[in-house]
Amino acid sequence: MKRAGVALALAGMLLAGCATTLNDVRGGPGAKLDPWENWNRKVFSFNEALDEKVLKPVATAYSNIVPELIRRGVDNFFGNFADAWSAVNNFLQGKGTAGVYDIMRVGTNTVFGLGGVLDVATEAGLEKTREDFGQTLGVWGMGTGAYIVWPFFGPSSVRDSIGLPMDIAASPATVINDGAIRYSLTALNAVNTRANLLGATRVLDDIALDKYTFIRDAYLQRRRSLVFDGNEPPPEDPTAADAPAPR
């Protein structure tokens, strides 16, 4: 099954089975944002084991073999597609200027950056603004919903799970009909991304007493910050009102 199909199925299961909990999360202050913690921790442990036994060793070998310049080029290539999707989301959020800048980034990097392999736009002063559909839903007023950890995809929320199929559909792998190339691009993106995070995970392993809680709280805080562009959310925002105290 295609990744987009898997993500859509997961999001559908979440929405169909958890409508009542969603209402609770959006209710009064103090509603718990992690009602499925027992299940989430099991999935988190599964993902950690998969990473430790498969993805991390592959990413480590990849990092040792592939020069940093090439890894950065892979980042830039996939980032060029992300910039195009970011432009769509900026326009959907009413951020016309940011959307135009994203389009300028895509055009500059595609034409002058060898199809996006070189990030010429950043050197020219066109900074990245990464917007996804989960952020767009947040700007439109949709609450975060319950925190959830998906197999393979990792931390998410009800809102971000709804946006995930759209985000995946905007990736380069989904616009290619050849199955072998599609899967190769998907694997390359996953391994290259994981290789870039090797240093961060070592630090996280050293400082986090409860890795699950640390990642959950950091994820929810970061997503809230992204939706409000780093500004303090208004008091009536469900995410701000219902955010659990760190445990």
Structural class: mainly alpha
Biggest sheet, spatial arrangement of strands: 1-2
Count of runs of 4 or more consecutive helical residues: 12
Number of strands: 2
Average pLDDT number: 84
Shape field: globular
Low-confidence parts lasting 5 or more residues at pLDDT below 50?
1-31, 236-247
Which band does the percent of strand residues land in?
Answer: under 5%
Q: Return the string of H and E elements.
A: HHHHHHHEEHHHHH
Q: Fraction of residues in helices?
A: 55-70%
Q: Span between N and C termini?
A: 38 Å
Can you characterise this structure?
This protein has twelve helices and two strands, in the order αααααααββααααα. The chain is mainly alpha-helical and 247 residues long. Strand 1 and strand 2 (154-157) form a beta hairpin. The termini are far apart. Residues 1-31 and 236-247 have low confidence and may be disordered.
Topology:
Blueprint: H1 3-17, H2 19-25, H3 37-65, H4 68-92, H5 96-112, H6 120-123, H7 133-139, E1 147-150, E2 154-157, H8 158-169, H9 179-196, H10 198-207, H11 211-227, H12 238-242
Antiparallel strand pairs: 1-2
Q: How would you describe this structure in keywords?
A:
single chain; 247 residues; mainly alpha; two-stranded antiparallel ribbon; 12 helices; 2 strands; 67% helix; 3% strand; disordered N terminus; disordered C terminus
Brief summary:
By secondary structure, this protein is mainly α.
